[in-house]
Amino acid sequence: NQKILIPNRELIDKFVYIAKPIFDEIEREYCSGDAFSEEVIMHYMHLLFFLLARNNDTAMPKRTGSIYTTETVAYIKEKYSENIKLSELARQLSVSPEHLSRIFKRDTGLGISEYLSIVRLQKSQLLLRSTALSVAEIAESCGFYDSNYFSKKFKKAFGISPLRFRKQATAGLE
Question: Which own/partner pairs from 105-108 qualify as long-range (CB within 8 Å, at least 24 positions apart)?
């Protein structure tokens, strides 16, 4: 005898508010069909997962190792601009690097470095939209100490260069 949970209207509205813009971007990427679309769609799916998990405690399963995942996410969000070392993070959590990596991957479906990269790239998008900082300054402030590497990662993730992203993102503001 299973109990069926029906979400209330507020929860549904919250989901739509969070997810609709991301689904729109996924659809745009799918329709563009360029060489990077599949990768970009995967990044949007990861973003959707994390946004939903952040806004709904029931979206992320509670497991024994989840405290390590929660602490790792908090640490990365706070120190994403720094040179984060897995060994240092694991030491602070009193766990082995291998165990931390395994738990994080189990809980999120992402490796720690992959999650760190997503956080850094999301922050760079925000800065590209909202500041006049150069691409090199944004790269450095987001933890990428080589602006060429940053530009390659950005283009691979979003299918567009950082400068072109900024032009498109700010075009509607003029």
Answer: 106/63, 106/65, 107/60, 107/61, 107/63, 107/65, 107/66, 107/69, 108/49, 108/50, 108/69
